[in-house]
Amino acid sequence: MASTNNHIHETNGSDIAKKPKLSSSAGVITPSEIESEFSHHDLSVARLNNGSFGCCPSSVIGAQQQWQLKYLRQPDDFYFNHLQTGILQSRTIIKDLVNAQHVDEISIVDNATTAAAIVLQHTAWAFREGRFQNGDVVLMLHYAYGAVKKSMEAYVTRAGGKVIEVPLPFPVNSNEDIVSEFRKALERGKSDGKRVRLAVIDHVTSMPCVVIPVKELIQICREEGVDQVFVDGAHSIGCTDVDMQDIGADFYTSNLHKWFFCPPSIAFLYSRRHSKFSDLHHPVVSHEYGNGLAVESAWIGTRDYSAQLVVPEALEFVNRFEGGIEGIKRRNHEAVVEMGEMLVKAWGTHIGTPPHMCCSMAMVGLPACLGIASDSDALRLRTHLRDAFGVEVPIYYRPPRDGEVESVTGYARISYQVYNKVDDYYRFRDAVNQLVQSGFTCALLSG
């Protein structure tokens, strides 16, 4: 059993659900091999932010470089004889990983932001072509990713749609807190006789990080007559359970460069087969326009496609760990909860969600005396932790509620991935303790 330290509890992989597995002659990976695979990381930094950019092991980087050289050696041979076959192989692996019914349901795109643009562009056409009525509603969570909110503005609002945000509590105590607010927002959307045409639901919100009960929300959408559901699972694959048959969305996207060890950038967009909403197109129009989204996405002009071609090697790497990706997810989840509890005990604060609403990331309350009073304070503190202590971690500002006096207004989003060690979190703990003991406040950074 491989582990990066002795403080993280191990799990028995015998009851882990089976997922696609390629044969590997390398055997179960050892701690020293993990260190070697990630030796290109800056070892002077406690890297607690896997959630933003992910990580890629050296073996997968090597495979990517071979694809790049294959292209550079003879581009015509690469294009005519290798590119489409390689992308189809990657799509087939993804199809099995996420339990889609058919490979045609899986398209490979650059990232989840591109996938959101594809779905929202399709929604905008429905408004402009009269299939949706002016003022009909598109629903999204308040904690939707910033780029997705901008895409709403660029596509849906300009086309005549009304966007309603679902306000979510934070800290959050239960799934019911989210379900209740979602139902209220649906009622607002339908209050003037308008129809809710699309619900955009995050599977794992980015900041603050919360695992959303997507299956339950989708069931509510079906009961309430919402036309389409798009799940933005940017963080999901390799981080939480992703099963297209179980979730039941019309559209679903997730990045493979965040938690599935692929190089940047690669994501899949699932579109349910035989759906009346399946007429999707890539926003970059090239020679394959009209041949289906999967084919369109596989050629959008001359560019580097190598990140999309190394999914087999990423799966080889994953399957060197006991239990494959299911084992990695389970151990990462247990580890991040353990490290989060260690940090809040040291600081006298709390975790922002119960463990079952964490995945491989957790929101950890920072001491109130740090004086985090704005988004700018949060960003400046993050920069200070990086520059002065070698700690890389995103920080979220949560305004105090009415009546709160000495409340926690800053939360750090810690990630745990296979390369992390307990010492990374001890460094973060000690850095914050040092700031507290020195009388530091964020006001000192504002000058």
Keywords for this structure?
alpha/beta, three-stranded antiparallel beta sheet, 14 helices, globular, 12% strand
Short overview:
Residues 1-22 are annotated as: Disordered. This is Aminotransferase class V domain-containing protein. By secondary structure, this protein is α/β, with parallel strands linked by helices.
Written description of the protein model:
- The structure is a single chain.
- This protein is an alpha/beta fold and 447 residues long.
- It contains 14 helices and twelve strands.
- It has helices spanning 31-37, 50-53, 58-73, 75-97, 112-128, 146-159, 175-190, 214-223, 244-247, 293-298, 311-318, 324-347, 375-389, 422-437; strands spanning 46-47, 106-109, 137-141, 162-166, 196-202, 228-232, 251-255, 267-271, 361-365, 391-392, 395-397, 410-415.
- The strands form three sheets. The chain has a seven-stranded mixed beta sheet, with helices on both faces. The protein has a three-stranded antiparallel beta sheet with strand order 9-12-11.
- α6 links the parallel β3 (137-141) and β4.
- α3 (58-73) packs antiparallel against α4 (75-97).
- The longest helix has 24 residues, at 324-347.
- It is globular.
